[in-house]
Amino acid sequence: MSQYKLAFFDIDGTLAAHNDPKVKSSMVERVPESTRLAIKKLKETGVEPIIATGRNHGMIRELLQSLNIGSFIANNGRYVVYKNQKIAHDVFSKDHLQEIVKYFESKHIDYCFETIDHLYINQSSQFLDDGAMDLDKIPDGKIPDEVIQMIVRSKDSFDVPIDGIQAVKVAPGVFDVTMENSNKAVGIDRILSAMKIRAGETLAFGDEENDIEMFEKAGYTIAMGNGIPKIKELADYVTTDVTDDGIWNACIALKLF
Q: From residue 225, how far is each of 125, 128, 158, 205 by CA, in Å?
């Protein structure tokens, strides 16, 4: 049996190849077959696979079903479920939301509202989806209930000059706008606390900026070959690219099954 009890997996660039705007494909279709087999074998050895993502539950529902995974950290640690039991669900305050919307409107920045299972845009918004989930249109000026975070597309990094708010890069050209101290490590802490598991008994696989806190928390970390330089520097092990059987190759090299 593995010395590890939990394995946390980022999605984009880790479990699944990044979306190519020129090729219409679903997140499930972008998961290599070798990765599917690795997840199955990890479960057989007693390691619970946990998806850790900036995306919401609605965007990853099909992936969870496809991989038969019942544990996940969504919305950068703000919505957490372990073995199909909800552990945490945080939302923006109305004051924060109104401030963010006012700022984005003043800068002509298009954005998307994110709840547990839906993505909303206002009627006149030019925000573009990535095919992972349909966008529900709502009247201009309307703000949905229970918004967990927001999404902005930008070629360059940017700050939101509002106390307590941060913009986190989650994929090339994609930023989640959320509360400070919202990250995957927060979700990991919530699971470890609830299940009385030590950080040293966990693995983490990732490739991007929003995986940094997760790498600082987990017991052993694996960076994808396609990962950013910072993640590779932090990692205990660097595997091959996601499209070159990266997760499978790491599991074999580390003798995880």
A: 36, 28, 26, 11
Q: 124 is in which domain, residue-wise?
A: 94-179
Number of domains forming the structure of the chain: 2
Give the residue from 14, 7, 38, 9 showing the smallest Cα distance to 225. 14
The CATH number of whichever domain residue 40 belongs to comes to 3.40.50.1000
How far is the C-alpha of 82 from the C-alpha of 104, rounded, in Å? Answer: 34
Q: Is 130 helix (H, G, I), strand (E, B) or coil?
A: coil
Q: What is the pTM of this model?
A: 0.88
Burial class of residue 67, CB neighbours in 10 A (0-12, 13-18, 19+): buried
Does some domain include residue 1? no
The answer to whether residues 127 and 112 touch, using CB atoms and an 8 Å cutoff, is yes
Q: What is the pLDDT of residues 121-173, one digit of tens each?
A: 999 999 987 666 689 999 999 999 999 999 999 988 889 999 999 998 887 88
Task: Please indicate, yes or no, whether residues 77 and 121 belong to a single structural domain of this protein.
Answer: no
How many whole angstroms separate alpha carbon 157 and alpha carbon 11?
Answer: 21
Instruction: Give pairs for 219-222: CB < 8 Å, separation 24+.
Output: 219/4, 220/4, 220/254, 222/247, 222/250, 222/254
- At 237, the amino acid letter reads Y
